[in-house]
Amino acid sequence: MAKNKIESLEKRAKGKEVEIRTLGTIQLRSDDSENADSRIVEGCAVVFDTDSVDMGFIEQVGKGAIDQNVIDSSDVYATLDHNTSRGILARSRNGKGTLSLELREDGLYYSFKAPNTALGDEVLEMIRRGDITGSSFAFTVEEDEWVYDESNVRRFIRKINRLFDVSPVYTPAYQATSATTRKFEDYTNIMKKLTDLEKEFAED
Questions:
Q1: What is the rounded average pLDDT of the residues 18-35?
Q2: Dihedral sign, CA of 21, 27, 32, 37?
Q3: 70 close to 134: Cβ distance less than 8 angstroms
Q4: Which residues pair with 107 in a beta bridge?
Q5: Which candidate, 130, 108, 117, places its Cα nearest to that of 27?
Q6: What pLDDT is attached to residue 33?
Q7: pLDDT at 177 over 90
Q8: Paired residues of 28 in beta bridges
Q9: I need a surface site. Which of 35, 105, 118, 128 has the fewest CB within 10 A?
Q10: Residue 195 pLDDT greater than 70, yes or no
Q11: Span 176-200, mean pLDDT?
């Protein structure tokens, strides 16, 4: 039973900084001709090579940031708003389970059959009503790169270490975590110092 315990993001990340991004869409499968009341939920959790909203910096998740090995080594929940306290909708453990994860040319897609629970019924109803339209995912980063591009600072996520959640969300938000904020501040401080030095040399 202990192996099936539903744990929070923080516990599963084991001290690593978990980042949450809203990049995708969600829908109910509409082509199920045998069942007008489909319980199959489909979404795109990650869109590759696409600019984020401006968080003080612009971010992209590169196409090669997630590969099959990341999926096969991750324990991924489908939750509502990343909230495991209400239970889960589906799960992929090492690439297998009730949650299907599929890499395509443009992103990471997922699908699951909503369980016959209060949570499953809520998600289905809210998607049908249009109250839930976005997907979000939680992850840790193994490799990234910061680049100064004209007037913008850009972050390129080159490699994701682990996936933790793919979630239908009520309020999509592209959140900068404290970890990325610190990296952004470090980078901008270095760039400011370099710019100041260049000005000093130019004046001399």
A1: 69
A2: positive
A3: no
A4: 47
A5: 130
A6: 42
A7: no
A8: 41
A9: 105
A10: no
A11: 66
Q: How far apart are CA 59 and CA 146, in angstroms?
A: 9
List 109's β-bridge partners, or say none.
44, 102
Cα(133)–Cα(123) distance, integer angstroms: 11
Cβ neighbors of 157 (< 8 A, separation 6 or more) are: 59, 60, 61, 62, 65, 141, 143, 144
Q: What is the largest CA-CA distance in the chain?
A: 78
pTM, whole model, 2 decimals?
0.79
Amino acid, res. 135: S
pLDDT in tens, 99-122: 999 999 999 999 999 999 999 999
Q: Which of 91, 105, 67 is nearest to 7 (CA)?
A: 91
Contact 90, 112 (CB under 8 A): yes
Residue 62 DSSP class: -
Residue 114 Cα to chain centre, angstroms: 20
Query: Could you give the angle at the alpha carbon of 80 between the alpha carbons of 14 and 95, nearest 5°?
Result: 60
* Residue linked to tokens 């991750």: 74
Side chain identity at residue 27, one-letter code = Q
The single-letter DSSP state of residue 57 is: S
Q: Which two tokens stand for residue 108?
A: 């990471």
Task: Count CB-CB contacts under 10 A for residue 183.
Answer: 17
Cα(first)–Cα(last) distance of the chain, in Å? Answer: 71
